[in-house]
Amino acid sequence: MEKILTLIEKDLKRLELAIDTLNETKVKVITNIIDHIIKSGGKRIRPILLILTSKLCGYKGKRHIKYAAVIEFIHTATLLHDDVIDNAQLRRGSSTANILWGNQASVLVGDFLYSKSFELMSKEGNMDIIKTVSNATTILSEGEILELIKTSDTNLTEEEYFEIINKKTAILFSAACEIGGILGDISKAKIRRLSDYGKYLGIAFQLVDDLLDYVGEKDTFGKQVGTDLKEGKVTLPLIYTLKHASEKDSSLIKENLYKREITSKDFKTVKNIVEKYGGFQYTHNVTKIYIEKARKCLEGFGPSNYKDALLSLTDMMLTRKV
Amino acid sequence: MEKILTLIEKDLKRLELAIDTLNETKVKVITNIIDHIIKSGGKRIRPILLILTSKLCGYKGKRHIKYAAVIEFIHTATLLHDDVIDNAQLRRGSSTANILWGNQASVLVGDFLYSKSFELMSKEGNMDIIKTVSNATTILSEGEILELIKTSDTNLTEEEYFEIINKKTAILFSAACEIGGILGDISKAKIRRLSDYGKYLGIAFQLVDDLLDYVGEKDTFGKQVGTDLKEGKVTLPLIYTLKHASEKDSSLIKENLYKREITSKDFKTVKNIVEKYGGFQYTHNVTKIYIEKARKCLEGFGPSNYKDALLSLTDMMLTRKV
Fold this sequence. Notes:
The structure is a homodimer.
Chain A: H1 2-7, H2 9-22, H3 28-38, H4 45-56, H5 63-86, E1 90-91, E2 94-95, H6 97-101, H7 103-124, H8 127-149, H9 158-184, H10 188-215, H11 218-221, H12 227-230, H13 236-244, H14 247-258, H15 264-277, H16 279-297, H17 305-319
Antiparallel strand pairs in A: 1-2
């Protein structure tokens, strides 16, 4: 990661400046809430993708910085609303905005960020990018609603799970890479490949996220471990295990998934069962497949530092702890 | 109103069809929630303004229908989020979506509608309209946040109150009229006048809404009367009364405004005090001033049925019961 951060160091500094400058409103509490969440050590993975892909395509202008900020704003809006939906207490090691300012403010500031993002894009004037982003955010909210409906649904299939993570996570990764391609003015076919790269990387990212929710360390991961189980979110490690486990083990998982509150003992019980049936290993293996798919999408692009960076991002997915 | 509805009868039918067609998603619950709220007898005032202003400017195309649907979608998104924020039970005489489907679904379906609206606009390809709408929704969410911050603030000034209603209500009325002007391809100065007409009409609309929250009949008004007092919303009738009332009467108002639950006796106590100091009459008088301002904005437009309709809408504000 250090290498990537050095490669686009100047752009990342400009990005932070842009985030500060564009987060302007007369209403102080809006700025405070946005600052709190956007400066709490996010990985900036979506803006980094946008910057790297635009550079990969030979883009020489400055607009990628503003779009990178917009993508991070949209991501931040979804986090604000997610934390309300999940009643989350902790994000990136700090109290969530809903805990500090209340659910109402979190909903409204999320709305503000969505609108502000479209306002900023409309000022830039690129209709293709507005199409890409509005399509992505529509699908994203569909994904979140699907996830909500499927809460505690132990019949969730792998196919449905992939539809959910594709919509709620991968689509914004994909949009970020697509914007890089649009700015670079490359062919539609090549833009499609970048967009697919983002999609597969996004799926891998979410798979690892769902894995870390069981096997991560709270202090490193920044979120509370075990929240998916607590919230009744059925993710790939569970789906695989429920398919292969004995009736007794399946029942134990379901029982804990339906509970409103789980103890760390409950969590360990479920974790051990998943481990026993190889649910974590399976998720890891599937992640590798998507990493490979992502890498393949970059084959048509000539060698460059930016391509290397995009390739190394795929490897990082497998080793990431945060 | 009958006359206006007859004048644009065909367009209003097309609007309902467009609302149905555009409210399409594979996720059934999204369609259900949107249907529930959008077909519960809304007045379609914003789409009507868009249609009438576009016709006033001689627009002959069909795009105004789609934009009218978009404006109603955006309005619906704000209602979904508002009802979560206010924990509202009743809207237009029916249970609110948050009561029927929960806060989480309401937040996410609101997000879906915002995104879908921008997606639909990006497909139409008019950047000026996207600018107008994204600017309006940004200001709108600022207004909602301001209102939230100022809850139970008995020091709220008239100026601050007008900033809030301008942002949370008038801006979308204004945007609807501006889109009519943009579609009609009239001069910037004339577009500005339409936008101002919408703004003043919107302010009058909200003033009457705040008045009806005290003096309306529940069965006619569709909402519960007295909700502003219950939610600690300080509106013009109260602002005026607090400024003129004796210390004893002021204290009585404040006491009830701070309460979490109010009885109908509490509500009547406050209502009688406001009546005594002329707070309702004052609000009515201020509404008249804004109605007059709105009418003046139309002076530069030649005579037509559409102009008459827009003028008659201003009068209707004063007599509306719903």
